[in-house]
Design brief:
single chain; 376 residues; alpha/beta; Rossmann fold; 2 domains; eight-stranded mixed beta sheet; 16 helices; globular
Length: 376
């Protein structure tokens, strides 16, 4: 039985994710699929349109065997931190391979770039403070086109594996849609395209399962802007938060007074040096109060969000060999930040999703009965 790792955010869970799982099952029919799932606040600075609980249910219903939580203190950081935490969690569960979506599927080139960076052979010969990281990386590698986002993430996965000397195989699956394409109406389109169409009140039912559409959480952007405005105007130590660098603290205080809404504020902060993702991520750190010292926190525990019968059997077989606790440590920074994030998500979506985090009852999915229940 091949043990396969998947790392995902499911914002929302859609046909492309189903395709991804199906392709893995074609490669390894008897495989065990272990998912590391990002929760409410995501790697590109977005807020999830599906709750952590509903994403877990959708994953289990679509052939994932074990769902593990990616803590918010790692899931909201840049690709290297996001990837290293995810790979670390999967390593603890003894996976043999990770399979991910990629724009190029050129795993040899991806691994070459990753090895150069880990072995410190690669340096930025071209340095330009007006350019963002993807542009600078492309120029220094002498590549004609900007490295697309999922290939950048794949490089980070490989870096984490090489850096920690893990024997995890990396296998890309060709993406059928571009992250940046928001006009396609093919059956499989990107999550960003789906969110764009939803925002424009277009019908999106053909792009994702009915359960995902019915579970959609609308984020109150007005409230988000108000929360952020209060935080920025009343905090005199904005430079203590992750990603706040080189005068951005002063620029935030200036621009928040002039902006009428969140989108206008983002545009006013944007520059050639900082991508929209970087700005969004920074604002989420400010919103959540993620100080730079949090970035150095080690994984305190691994939280199991749910499992199938097959997943439960595997858990029982390896539980004693896992060195890190599998239940939340309530006095840890990791746990405290997770609860804080869930409560804020409740306020922004006018929901009560934090109960799933507070109660800590993994979802048990049984295909035979097609029922989900909570572990007692």
């Amino acid at each position: 039985m091949r043990k396969i790792g998947i790392i995902a955010e499911y914002n929302p869970f859609h046909n492309g994710h189903i395709y991804h799982i199906q392709k893995i099952k074609e490669l390894y029919p008897d495989s065990l699929l272990i998912l590391v799932l990002n929760g409410y606040f995501l790697e590109r600075g977005e807020i999830s349109v599906l709750s952590k609980e509903n994403k877990t249910k959708l994953a289990l219903k679509n052939d994932i065997d074990i769902v593990l939580e990616l803590p918010v203190i790692y899931g909201t950081q840049s690709s290297d931190t996001f990837a290293e935490a995810s790979i670390n969690i999967l390593q603890n569960f003894q996976i043999e391979e990770i399979i991910f979506g990629s724009e190029s599927t050129n795993i040899e080139k991806i691994q070459e770039i990753a090895k150069e960076q880990v072995e410190k052979k690669f340096t930025f010969k071209i340095k330009d403070k007006t350019q963002n990281y993807p542009t600078l990386l492309t120029k220094n590698l002498n590549i004609p086109n900007i490295i697309p986002p999922n290939d950048l993430l794949a490089i980070s996965y490989c870096k984490a594996i090489f850096k920690n000397h893990y024997s995890i195989k990396t296998t890309p699956i060709l993406r059928t849609s571009s992250y940046h394409n928001i006009t396609s109406s093919e059956p499989i389109i990107s999550a960003s395209n789906i969110r764009h169409k939803r925002k424009n009140q277009e019908n999106i039912h053909k792009y994702l399962p009915a359960d995902a559409l019915n579970s959609w959480q609308e984020v109150d952007m007005k409230k988000l802007f108000e929360f952020l405005k209060y935080r920025i105007l009343t905090d005199n130590h904005l430079d203590s938060y992750i990603d706040v660098t080189e005068g951005l603290d002063f620029k935030m205080k200036k621009e928040i007074k002039n902006a009428k809404n969140y989108e206008e504020f983002i545009k006013n902060l944007k520059s050639k040096r900082y991508t929209y993702n970087r700005i969004n991520r920074m604002l989420i750190h400010v919103l959540l109060g993620h100080q730079k010292k949090i970035a150095k926190e080690s994984l305190s525990y691994i939280k199991i969000l749910g499992f199938s019968k097959k997943g439960q059997e595997y858990l029982n077989s390896i539980r004693k060999n896992i060195q890190i606790p599998l239940t939340p440590i309530k006095d840890s920074i990791q746990y405290q930040e997770e609860i804080k994030a869930s409560l804020l998500y409740d306020m922004l979506t006018h929901s009560q999703n934090s109960l799933f985090d507070i109660q800590n009852k993994p979802i048990i999915y049984t295909k035979e009965t097609s029922k989900e229940s909570n572990q007692k």
